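Hi Y.,

Following your request, here is the sequence exactly as I used it, all 263 residues.
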Amino acid sequence: MFVRSFIAVAVAAAFSFGAAASAYAAPDMGKGDASANWAGVAKTGHTYEWVQATYTEPSMPVPCEFGTSGPSLALVRVGFDGFGNGTSEQVGTGIECIPAGKPNGPTTPMVVKHAGFFQVDPGANPLGTVFCNPEDDAPAKGCVGSFDLLAGDTVTASVSFADGTFTFSLFNERTGETATATGTSAAATRTSAEAVVEAPFGTHVPLTNFESIGFEGFVAHAENHEGGQKSDNQAITMKNGATVRAEPGDLHGSTFTVTWDHA
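Below is the corresponding structure, written out as tokens. Let me know if you'd prefer a different format.
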């Protein structure tokens, strides 16, 4: 029998994938350049207190990619850390392609789910928490609040830190509504700020074909930093061995695009 939707079951690194998912939630990418999990841009060189980016929630091509035994996934997220360390404080949206029955090649009917999420790892809930999507006829178990999300929506994701607390925010331009949540982490260093597309299970679950996602207004503010030295921008390509899964284009000011290449 086909496994239920990861979104409907719970959350991890974005949705609920079980205990093993935490190993993929906050990859240590060392010097960067390539990752099994991430494609996008990381800013480094400071201790950051705020990061933000705007993007369009992707529509799925028909048929979308999925695995032989379950869904494929892609997360679009903005946050701190994970670049060169094992912590993660992030917010964003996830898209999941679910075969509506036993997978049987490109003609298999599919269901596509969208949801907002936030995560602090390590933290009280390192597997992440999903915002309830009223558009979903089978909302995630244990979801919180509400974030109405459809393909094509323009979303602004931001994370800020003040007085020991992270505040996670998602704003949907179509509805004019904002979902917010807070969290704490004694382990967080905030030494990087990122806007990336993530494969939360690394190479263990296919990367949903999101085609391309354009990030705009990608900015990060550092503590006690008025002008002076700018952040270093690190481009990250998602790879499985020699196979490129997704890659960022050039950063033009605060704008860049991540393109899907392979599941």
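Residues 131 and 144 are 5 Å apart (CA to CA).

Thanks again,
Q.
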